[in-house]
Design goal:
- The chain is of the alpha+beta class.
- The chain is elongated.
- The relative contact order is 0.13.
């Protein structure tokens, strides 16, 4: 796949020194992690007018696309998705528990522990949980900008 161009914004000032014209090019972000990929182009919309999945172009999310193609199930853990992931794993007989830390002097849920000790994995909010076809779990860490 051809790499995307990344056209910078162009700012021009009028002869009076006060008027400003700004020309921008619409950018496309990864629909997995939100990382900027470059300029929008024809590959971003399918024949039905829907946005395409561009996670394969993203350095962070491309490994997840490959894992999904290999038969893995992936979930991005967020405070909003926590309950659904917990329910799905509980339904499959997988032990999960809140992962907590002290934040601003309060015990706060910051992720999920999956499996029993030893051998459990911990995913923090923003990370991707990966269930492999053999039933094992790994975690794909969120990029630093997203995790912060």
């Amino acid at each position: 796949m051809q790499p995307r161009t990344n056209t910078p914004d162009e700012i021009t000032y009028g002869d009076d020194g006060q008027s400003v014209t700004r020309t921008i090019t619409m950018k496309r972000c990864c629909n997995g992690c939100g990382e900027y990929l470059g300029d929008v182009d024809n590959r971003d919309v399918d024949e039905h007018g829907n946005l395409t999945d561009v996670r394969g172009e993203c350095s962070n999310c491309a490994p997840l696309v490959e894992l999904e193609a290999a038969g893995c199930k992936t979930w991005q853990l967020t405070p909003r998705s926590y309950g659904l992931i917990d329910w799905q794993l509980d339904r499959d007989g997988v032990f999960t528990k809140q992962f907590t830390e002290v934040v601003d002097k309060k015990i706060t849920t910051v992720g999920m522990r999956i499996g029993v000790k030893p051998g459990h994995v911990v995913a923090r909010f923003g990370d991707w949980i990966i269930r492999h076809p053999d039933g094992g779990f790994t975690v794909h860490k969120a990029p630093e900008e997203v995790a912060a």
